[in-house]
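Researcher: Checking consistency across runs. Here is YhfC family intramembrane metalloprotease again:
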Amino acid sequence: MWDTALRIFAGLASIGLAIGLGYYVRRIYPSWSAFGWGALCFVLSQVFHIPFNSLVLNNVFDMPSLVESRGFGSLVVSLALGLSAGIFEETARWIFYRYKFSGVKSYELALMFGAGHGGCEAIISGFLAVAALIGMSYLRAHPEVINDMPQDQQQVVEKELADYWATPTLTVLMTPVERVFAIAFHLCASVLVWQGFVQNNQLRFWALAVAAHTALDSVAVFLLLTSGAYSVETCLLLTAFPMSLYVLWYYRPRQQSANEEGDSLILAYAQVRTT
């Protein structure tokens, strides 16, 4: 019972984190529309990203064989997956800024857009975690379902079931913690791509966002394949998380008078409402 409750908490915490962040950012950017567009941006990026990985990368690189080979093979897989994630997600961000928020140069909008992008991923991850719990709980309570499967499939399902319930408590709790790191990066990447429009250097900042995304995902995948989940979270805590916070701090709006700040927010909000 305790194990089940812990898994429910981990899934719901990921969902609550995304919603809570949206409410927090709304204090400085008074519109949920950018959050919704950010969420749509993530979904559409995955509509192209996931099939590309499945149909192209798996065939070009023979991913299963490379993963089994460890060492150099794991490095190739990590770089390929990281680069594809960076290109698809950051390009999607650029497209939305270019065609939906053209002319709106608001730091607060970039934050809300990033909150929607990363928040959508967190919400989906949370729901998938809860759905997995329901499925695994059902299989554990009804072993006859597994017994009715073909023999080779039974072995696979039984192993997955055993591995699922053998997952350490700390690993389960790392799920929402990882979402914190991921959302922080999505805020960072959204601000980077947005800076390209502010500074009229879109290619440079898009490339920076792609490079950062590639590095983050590549290191995470490589450590997961070679060292385990604890190494991934430790690395994210010591590198990606503080880097993301630094970018958010560095590109924050400089001090301006209260009237100027209020006027800029009202203007940005009005521009979004009319697009």
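Researcher: Does this match what you'd expect to see?
Model: One thing to look at in this run: The chain is about 85% helix and 0% strand.
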